Amino acid sequence: MSQESVRMARELIEAWNRRDIDALLAAAAPDVEWTPTGPAAIESSVYRGPEEIARGFESTWQGWDEFRFEESEIRDLGQSALFGRATVRGAASHVRLDQEWAVLIAFTDRAVTSLRAFPASRDGLAAVGLEE
Question: Which residue among 12, 110, 115, 119 is least crowded, i.e. fewest CB within 10 A of its CB?
Fold first, then answer.
């Protein structure tokens, strides 16, 4: 995995945490796909293209007063894999959750082509045929 991919992955986390849709979409390829899981899977199981993803991100953020990622590790699994924790707090319930998280990020020509989220690192590793 290149240092450029690591930098881009970290920038995506920071943009998500700022709820900066423009920065998130600036890194996306025109045919980008987002497959959310857990508390982010509100409207759809897969969002395709920048417009759908923007609507999905906005919908997710409306449901949560807080939704922050903290990176604990980035691995090269043929694509960038982020592992860490997510802290969320419900907008209506104010219930706070702190959970493990994994996101596989595929890059082509320095653009993000897909984001696949998993509720745990073991699930992300299993998706690429590996175990913890």
Answer: 110
